[in-house]
Amino acid sequence: MNALAATNRNFKLASRLLGLDSKLEKSLLIPFREIKASKIASCVECTIPKDDGTLQSYVGFRVQHDNARGPMKGGIRYHPEVDPDEVNALAQLMTWKTAVANIPYGGAKGGIGCNPAELSISELERLTRVFTQKIHDLIGTHTDVPAPDMGTGPQTMAWILDEYSKFHGYSPAVVTGKPIDLGGSLGREAATGRGVLFATEALLNEHGKSVSGQRFVIQGFGNVGSWAAQLISEKGGKVVAVSDISGAIKNSKGLDIPSLLEHSKKHKGVKGFHGGDPISADSILVEDCDVLVPAALGGVINRENANEIKAKFIVEAANHPTDPEADEASVVILPDIYANSGGVTVSYFEWVQNIQGFMWNEEKVNNELGNYMTKGFKDVKEMCKTHDCDLRMGAFTLAVNRVARATVLRGVTSPNVANINKWVCPLRVCDDGGSKREDKPIGGGGDATRVAPVQWTSGVQFNGGLAMDQRPQIGRSVVVFVTRMVCEESRERDNRTDFRLG
Ligand SMILES: NC(=O)C1=CN([C@@H]2O[C@H](COP(=O)(O)OP(=O)(O)OC[C@H]3O[C@@H](n4cnc5c(N)ncnc54)[C@H](O)[C@@H]3O)[C@@H](O)[C@H]2O)C=CC1
Ligand SMILES: O=C(O)CCC(=O)C(=O)O
């Protein structure tokens, strides 16, 4: 299943569990904006030729999926297989990821179809600058904030920052994942891997285990995979096999990760490492282990290999590594939108530091990250309980509920009672500490049978009478019926005329 079909499917399953209105469901699926910058390095677009004097065209993308909860946020990927559908899926995943992490962002993703390994540093710089020239008026500190993803890193962010600042003045918060010298956050480079460690600890603890003594297999040894390997082994986890684009190696006694890191830096890959035996890159996913950590490409766990996987747990460090057809496999899967949210969470800290003009120390960054990851796991588990579903649907229902709620609240323009019964969506407002749940809607009709917990937002006021400005008492749940009328004529999300509440 392609990445977009898979992501849409997971969203729709969550939406059905939540009982979302079909119009709202459709609206949440459609991206806010898709940017396709074609021929960005052609003679027309780019005045700087390749190093050998020839001209080369590349296609760049930025998909802005949703901004209901805040500025859109997501990485930029440089990879030969970047295509519009994949970027679209990754942008949508960012919307759900920032919502699971409960950070004030929406979702976006970008990329350029290129092989960064075949470009010189100056070619990469020119390509990045031309791409930035194409999208500079569509990104910004409070609109859309890019960050690194596969094939990009702090240097790429520094070029974007510099090029963007030529148009808009010095703007450090326009990108995150920057070099520390340019306002990057301490701890951001390791953050996705560290988040993977925290997520894995939370999952294993729940199963009465700890990282120490567990056997791990990691696919991908770039930013995310290598940091995850390092931090897991520091905690006593045994990394028994690792792969990257150059090859795969195995040592059932546990690989020496610091030596492997050194080797990989020197030889640009794990291939040829003497502390392990070479194995086929394809077999890495079905190696015997306790925890499998895919940290490279999407769609690698699929119908073909799902039943051969020996791991008891899969922690999705990569984005959408598991095809929906493999979700049925008898293994516990910790989904990407929670498991790899450590990167964007520390990106948020970086953005906050840039806006405040105040730098945090690394201990504070890592401690705060730990708090967010712990809370995220608790929130996901709560949704699993409410909807009697697996961890992926727990994460999706949590995210979709938060985004839907923000969308509806922002869409309130005026009370309109004419079509009050056209469609009814219950939003259950409860406080976090409430253990006694009233599942009966209070003071409303409608045909809704399912209510889902959402986080209490104080001080929110519906125009036209329904006020939610008082925190409910501990242990008490309040159900608010939000009735919406859809303006059939307008599907334009920009001006927010879709939804009116009465
Ligand atoms: N960098 C970040 O902060 C975040 C990254 N992610 C996701 O994590 C994954 C990895 O991203 P990064 O580590 O940043 O990228 P990276 O570019 O630093 O590393 C990618 C790694 O994957 C390996 N790889 C590529 N093709 C492969 C193949 N066919 N088989 C095995 N290994 C292969 C590369 O050799 C490299 O080791 C991606 O799915 C990305 O979207 C998710 C959240 C945040
Ligand atoms: O750090 C960020 O803003 C986004 C990282 C990213 O692209 C991702 O989580 O997939």
TrEMBL record:
An example molecular function term from Gene Ontology annotations: glutamate dehydrogenase (NAD+) activity
Keyword Hydrolase applies: no
Alphabetic keyword roster: NAD, Nucleotide-binding, Oxidoreductase
Gene Ontology BP term (one): L-glutamate catabolic process
Record has Oxidoreductase as a keyword: yes
Boundaries of every Glutamate/phenylalanine/leucine/valine/L-tryptophan dehydrogenase C-terminal domain copy: 185-411
Site (Important for catalysis): D149
Active site: K109 (proton donor)
Catalytic activity: L-glutamate + NADP(+) + H2O = 2-oxoglutarate + NH4(+) + NADPH + H(+); L-glutamate + NAD(+) + H2O = 2-oxoglutarate + NH4(+) + NADH + H(+)
One Pfam family of this chain: ELFV_dehydrog
Coiled coil: none
Gene Ontology terms: cellular component: mitochondrion
Record InterPro entries: Aminoacid_DH-like_N_sf, Glu/Leu/Phe/Val/Trp_DH, Glu/Leu/Phe/Val/Trp_DH_C, Glu/Leu/Phe/Val/Trp_DH_dimer, Glu/Leu/Phe/Val_DH_AS, Glu_DH, NAD(P)-bd_dom_sf, NAD_bind_Glu_DH
Residue sites binding NAD(+) per the record: T192, N223
Binding residue positions for substrate: K73, K97, S347
Family classification: Belongs to the Glu/Leu/Phe/Val dehydrogenases family.
Protein name: Glutamate dehydrogenase
Native organism: Vigna unguiculata (Cowpea)
